[in-house]
Amino acid sequence: MNLAKLLEPLIKIDDKLHSFKIEGISINSKGVEQNTLFIAISGESVNGHEFIEEAIRNGAVAIVGEKNLDELGIERLEDATFMKGKIGPNELSEYSIPYIQVENSRKALAKIACQFYGNPTKNKTVIGITGTNGKTTTSFMLKKILEDAGNTCTLFGSIHNEVNGQVTPSINTTPDALELQNRLAQSNDDFVILEVSSHGISQHRIEGIEFDYCLFTNLDHEHLDYHHDMEDYFNVKTTLFEQLKPTGKAIINGFDLWGTKLSKQLIADNKQVILLGQNVQLKEWHSCFGKLTSFDGDDIDLHLQVLGKHNILNASMALLTARELGITKESIVQSLLQFSGVPGRFEILTHPKGAKIVIDYAHTHDAFSQCLQTIKEQGAKRIFHIFGFRGNRDQTKRQPMVEISKELCDLTLLTLDDLNGTTKESMEQTLHELHGAVILDRTIAIKQVLELANEGDWVCITGKGHETYKEKFQYPTATDKETVDFFTKDFNKNNNYQ
């Protein structure tokens, strides 16, 4: 694709640039090859503008960035943009590298990637799911419903990405714009389901994608180290719904106060809204069962294998979306009945002594409450709760999380999550200030609590879910599930931990 065509969504540029052929796009100078457009991103820890010369040496034929050309001081760069209707001051020679200055490189990247890959979602049905909690479970439920009905699904989310039936690890909940558009262009699937994080929205990773359906699950105290406050966090989430197609619909959890606020805003903007709790009622609602009265007057009984009232809400959101997509009520209900859960989301393991062990990704006050209340409803004799906090992340949510755990549990034990740049000593001091019971080594903490557990007890390990450990612990395990398995597999044989 020629450079002028590639930049059409951004700016009108000099006709001379039609001769520049772009065969690839990169935001990493080391990944640049011949005939590549390099886009310099100002990141939190790395500034791509510092690697422009390396990108040129590796074969970049054009550069997009945010800094002024004079500020960069790179001789071969030439101003290639129209400035107030005039061509830049320098004539482009065969040795020149066109430089296009933009206000926001991340936003430019998304639009350029979309153009380069031919707007790959234009003929696909695209579903975006946002919210603090429930995105992953709702997306997996919806994917199962659609696939059981004979469809194929592309999925992008925090557990993994899946395109054309091929599963790859997920680095971020929402991939960067370049990877996302590339993978979308490869997809031959009928539907695209995309978990949309607030970081993904604010960093313009989904820029240029038009959605047929956008779902809002809830909003809870989270990421306030990144967003200024809850209002700012909410406002970022709401911008997803600005990317609905003219015929697109918003499906919103009206049992969440932020959800009702969002619905009012969208209705005022003449968006089509389906509100769970208003347009569709939940007449009965408990751990594994919910009865919905749908918009067409039918009563729909939801039965789930997975525990938790919150999963009834997740299932209801998936059901409402599937009904909009034309899936029959009977097919949806059967798929949800067969849904066995998501790795690291209220995943239940059995202790050899008869206790139950729950591994969950919960890392907010509300998620703790939902998880622990579900355990209490199962008749737990005692609840032992193990969790930690990630370093250099939102500190204001920590004390409320400790308090709800202490309120609902018989033992609250703090341990290490990810240091994330914080020193071990500093994190240990923080944990002791929050709560007296601390075992810093996560594997030892799990081991000691498993030794305490007896029949009828529940052990709840939260925060990591499916994720692998980033820190090195005493025992040779990589996830919470592996740690549990390590200490329970030989218990019956030895009646003791080794």
TrEMBL record:
Which pathway, metabolic or otherwise, does it act in? Cell wall biogenesis; peptidoglycan biosynthesis
**Tell me, what is one Gene Ontology molecular-function annotation carried by this entry?**
tetrahydrofolylpolyglutamate synthase activity
Which UniProt keywords are given for this protein, alphabetically ordered?
ATP-binding, Cell cycle, Cell division, Cell shape, Cell wall biogenesis/degradation, Cytoplasm, Ligase, Nucleotide-binding, Peptidoglycan synthesis
Report the residue ranges that make up the Mur ligase N-terminal catalytic domain in this protein.
21-117
* Compartments it resides in: Cytoplasm
What InterPro entries does this protein map onto? Folylpolyglutamate_synth_CS, Mur-like_cat_sf, Mur_ligase_C, Mur_ligase_C_dom_sf, Mur_ligase_cen, Mur_ligase_N, MurE/MurF_N, UDP-N-AcMur-Glu-dNH2Pim_ligase
* Any GO BP: peptidoglycan biosynthetic process
Ranges for domain Mur ligase C-terminal: 344-465
UniProt domain Mur ligase central: residue ranges: 129-321
Task: List, alphabetically, the Pfam families matched.
Answer: Mur_ligase (PF01225), Mur_ligase_C (PF02875), Mur_ligase_M (PF08245)
Gene Ontology cellular-component annotations:
cytoplasm
User: What family is it from?
Assistant: Belongs to the MurCDEF family. MurE subfamily.
The protein here is known as: UDP-MurNAc-tripeptide synthetase
